[in-house]
Amino acid sequence: MKFKIAILGTGNVAWHLAPALEDAGHTITEVFGRDRENIESITKRLYTAEGKEDLDFSESEAEIFILAVSDQAISGLADEVILPEESILVHTSGAVPLEILGYSSASYTGIFYPLQSFSKDRPIDFSEVPFLLESEDGTTLQKLKKLAKSLSTLQYLIKSKDRLALHVAAVFASNFSNHMLRISEEIMARQGLDFDMMKPLIIETISKSLELGARKAQTGPAVRSDFNTLEIHHQFLNYNEQVAEIYKLISQDIIDSY
Amino acid sequence: MKFKIAILGTGNVAWHLAPALEDAGHTITEVFGRDRENIESITKRLYTAEGKEDLDFSESEAEIFILAVSDQAISGLADEVILPEESILVHTSGAVPLEILGYSSASYTGIFYPLQSFSKDRPIDFSEVPFLLESEDGTTLQKLKKLAKSLSTLQYLIKSKDRLALHVAAVFASNFSNHMLRISEEIMARQGLDFDMMKPLIIETISKSLELGARKAQTGPAVRSDFNTLEIHHQFLNYNEQVAEIYKLISQDIIDSY
Predict the structure, then answer these.
(1) To the nearest whole percent, how much of chain A has pLDDT over 70?
(2) Does the beta carbon of B119 lie under 8 angstroms from any beta carbon of chain A?
(3) CA separation for the pair A134, A145 (Å, rounded)
(4) Out of A162, A178, A236, whose CB is closest to B191?
(5) How far apart (Å, rounded) are the C-alpha atoms in residues B258 and B225?
(6) Which of 137-166 (A) contact B at CB < 8 A?
(7) DSSP readout, A10-79?
(8) Which of B70, B122, B171 to mutate to test the interface with A (most CBs of A within 10 A)?
(9) Is the pLDDT of residue A245 over 90?
(10) A202: closest CA among B115, B42, B230?
């Protein structure tokens, strides 16, 4: 089942998703954005899509309209956009409830949330991206499932309430674990040490954690309740109060959870 | 150059290191421990090593004595152990300075620190483990370098001062990133959601971070200064005050560092 799809938004998700949908055999009819240059950065990756700077889609041939914009922008765009009859409007956010699309001119609404971290500098293999889907309309949900299946082997039906929990969990698993690497990089750089030294440890830590589960995989001074080392480390970090506080709080949480 | 080596300690590092040293052609003469069962858990992985419950090594044929024990135990064991003439005593810790071995009966002292996270449940490929080496004696350092080279392609000469920084950096990169996965697992479990959903995101996040650097790789609500989502997430976590505080503090640190 091939769809005609319009993409609203020109950020990282739109940038990766639009060409992937085309590669899967769908047609991208339009790409909407506020800025001509941003629109073109997407349309030039596509065969047929037209750039569009206004929100009147009443003449569009698309059936599915994907809002791939920042969380704050979803509600305003959903209210403003003029959609044709029988159209489906979905957003791609992990944090915004389905109800927010309820005031739009769409006949049907849904969520089409790819659980992945998108950066323009790096290609994405969509076949391994889990798609989290939601709709109150059964036929719409089936269509979203077929759309997701055309891109990926992983689809899940997730209610908005669970999607919020999942999004919080994703922030810890992705953004916060990445920030731990960032702090590590900065400690090494400050000392003039090569961060490459740390890479085998990071790769082994994450592989082990995914295999054994994080609880069983934990090592280090906090899980050993090695208070002497914890104190030496905390003192070492006294040049950055906030990072020292992060050290203390996470160590305490590790101690408390064994 | 093949060495005769005694291992003092029966923990995770000893458990992995002793057989790896034997595989590299060295001879393990003795394994010291306080508990017969723990000693045997190591010696039964080895061809020739004798178990030993006392610290009189004056008759040992070993040249290199590796203290692979918890940080707190290093100093006491180093003071107590009776070593033969011309022996080299090293420890394997990231956090303990070289000077602590200065009161031992060893002729030479050093550090032989494998920068890796060791768990008994999981085999280690030593060829990719960075060995961080230190000694004030040039010949000893050469021997430690040869020993490390027989196990791994990665050796670094690191002073105690830098080794402390490196150990703090390793705690963030390994123990703390693993704890972020642990919190994520718990949020998912509490909601009855399958953590497998999160795995492609984690693998992509870490791969991207190692390729682009963590600063450039960051995504999510904090780096976008999406205060609305941050607030919703923080409220969601109100069932666990400490985790809510971790959420707030790390988000603030991400915001502050862009």
Answers:
(1) 100
(2) yes
(3) 9
(4) A162
(5) 10
(6) 154, 156, 158, 162, 164-166
(7) -SHHHHHHHHHHHHTT-EEEEEE-SSHHHHHHHHTTSSSPEEE-S-B-TT---SEEEE-S-HHHHHHHHH
(8) B171
(9) yes
(10) B115
Pick from A12, A228, A229, A233 the residue to mutate for testing the B interface (most B CBs within 10 Å): A229
Residue B160 confidence (pLDDT):
86
**Can you tell me the distance from the alpha carbon of A77 to that of A104, in angstroms, rounded to the nearest whole number?**
9
Cβ pair B180:A180 closer than 8 A: yes
> Angle at CA A165, nearest 5°, toward B223 and A163?
90
| 8 A C-beta contact, residue A130 and residue B197 | yes
Structure tokens at B90: 């090293």
How sure is the predictor about A252, in pLDDT bands with cuts at 50, 70 and 90? very high
Contact B162, A206 (CB under 8 A): no
Cα–Cα separations (whole angstroms), residue B93 to A128, A159, A248, B14, B62: 39, 48, 21, 12, 21
Q: Which residue of B has its CA nearest to A162?
A: B191
Instruction: Note whether A176 and A186 are within 8 A (CB).
Output: no
Report how far residue B54's alpha carbon sits from residue A102's, in angstroms, rounded to the nearest whole number. 76
CB-based contact B44:B21 (threshold 8 Å)? no
What is the mean predicted confidence (pLDDT) over A6-10? 97
Instruction: Tell me if ipTM is over 0.95.
Output: no
Beta pairing, strands B88-91 & B64-67: parallel
Helices (H) and strands (E) in chain B, counts: 10, 8
The number of CA neighbours under 13 Å toward the Cβ of A230 is 21
Residue B120, pLDDT score: 86
- pLDDT tens profile B9-58: 999 999 999 999 999 999 999 999 999 999 999 999 999 899 999 999 99
Q: Tell me the pLDDT tens digit for each residue of A179-197.
A: 999 999 999 999 999 999 9
Task: Please state, in angstroms and as integers, the Cα–Cα distance from residue B2 to each residue in B42, B87, B124, B137, following that order.
Answer: 21, 15, 21, 19
The one-character DSSP state at B91 is E
B94: left (phi over 0), alpha (psi -120 to 50) or beta: alpha
Which stretches within chain B are classed as H helix? 12-23, 36-43, 71-80, 138-149, 160-170, 177-190, 199-212, 214-217, 227-236, 241-256
pLDDT in tens, A60-107: 999 999 999 988 899 999 999 999 999 999 999 988 999 999 999 999
A–B interface: beta-carbon pairs under 8 A: 321
Q: Which residues of A touch B227 (CB under 8 A)?
A: none
**Do residues B163 and B134 touch, judged by C-beta distance below 8 A?**
yes
